[in-house]
Amino acid sequence: MKEFDIIVAGAGPAGLYAAYTASLNDLSVLVLEKDEEIGKPILCAEGVSNRTLELFFDKFPQEIIRNSFSKLIVKYNDSISYTDIPDMGVILNRELFDKYIALLAVNSGVIIKTNEPVINGNRENNKMIIETNANKYIASIFIAADGVESKCARYFGINTTTELNDIYSCCEYILTHDSISEKEIIFDYSPKFARYGYTWVFPRGGNEANIGLGVIPSKSKKKAKDILNEYIELNYKNANILEKKAGAVPVNPLRKPYSDNLLIVGDAGKYVDPITGGGIDNALRTGRLAALTAIRAIRMNDLSEKAMKYYTDLIKRDNLFSLKMQLKLKIIMENMKERELDEMFKSILSMLNNKEILSNEFYESINGLQGLFERIKQFGLLMKGIASKRTMIRILLKLLWV
Ligand SMILES: Cc1cc2nc3c(=O)[nH]c(=O)nc-3n(C[C@H](O)[C@H](O)[C@H](O)COP(=O)(O)OP(=O)(O)OC[C@H]3O[C@@H](n4cnc5c(N)ncnc54)[C@H](O)[C@@H]3O)c2cc1C
Fold it and tell me: Which one of 110, 125, 279, 390 counts the least CB within 10 Å of its CB?
């Protein structure tokens, strides 16, 4: 059996970035991927902030970017806001993006094997025995990066079941329509379509867009696909639909995404933002933090659960803290009456309208929120996710950097 310092299951952004980071630090790393090709199939609207790309990549290749947007449109029933966001983000080509991280990883020494799903695992004598459809391998540390349908951590006794309220069922169409502008990114929170979720229009260049929505299946009376069809019929009549896809987004991070010799990253750890559905940034982030934990553990020759807990310590220090806050907001918004939602969105939209928001200002105000959040927590206002609606509206407004 071939032995590695680290074996990663899953060649998405989380697993590949973990592998790349560990390999840069001279660890031997094997990545095992279920599918035949990296970056295929992809289920993603491909939106990401420029800041994420700056944080994780030197000289990010421009050919991986499909389109740059510069205007944010937020809709809620008949209310609408227009905000200039000239340097905020881009729409990626995810297939090329995943392949690019794979290339960085391979160039730094990582071995990637595709068409080789992990099908079982055992812990023996402080080592991980990883079984695929073709081989058995040994590693000091195993990183489960196998996405939303993650099973790999279960081979080692971790319960990764997602509660029904903690998953968005998503449907997305790639289409062309004359009314689509390549500069406008749209979030639509109108409850008649996505009462427990959101609708997005992400421009891919020209008049092509990825239009999709996510709903909580246990709360929504209709299926995501049926609501999306109604949305498109009403807003993009006679659109030319090029592709239809469906998938899921898990939104409540695992309480303990580690155990002896094991770390869980990205969607497998359920690190997706419940308000925007964004998971690429968190996948890269958790991938990097898991690799740093593994590097430290191997250097200290301590692969115990206690050493692995360093991963969640790093997560707490990182701005992943905002996920926790977004989750509380999700719960509060779900429990709001429609009249309260109306009031809240109308005030948010009127504050966003006709503003210009620059990326650095946005992230400065987000960072400033950590202090605010800590103070509120201290006073017990967010105990069990229940605060006065007025307080939550104030927090939400702050969150939206206005
Ligand atoms: C419809 C939709 C739209 C989205 N839009 C956006 C967006 O616009 N912006 C954004 O930031 N996020 C978006 N997301 C979320 C984002 O796609 C994910 O958060 C991100 O892909 C997570 O990366 P990951 O590496 O954790 O998992 P994945 O990218 O899912 O990678 C997991 C990999 O593991 C492999 N695998 C699975 N099982 C095994 C196994 N047993 N052995 C080996 N390999 C295995 C899979 O084949 C896959 O390659 C969207 C999600 C959906 C569903």
Answer: 125
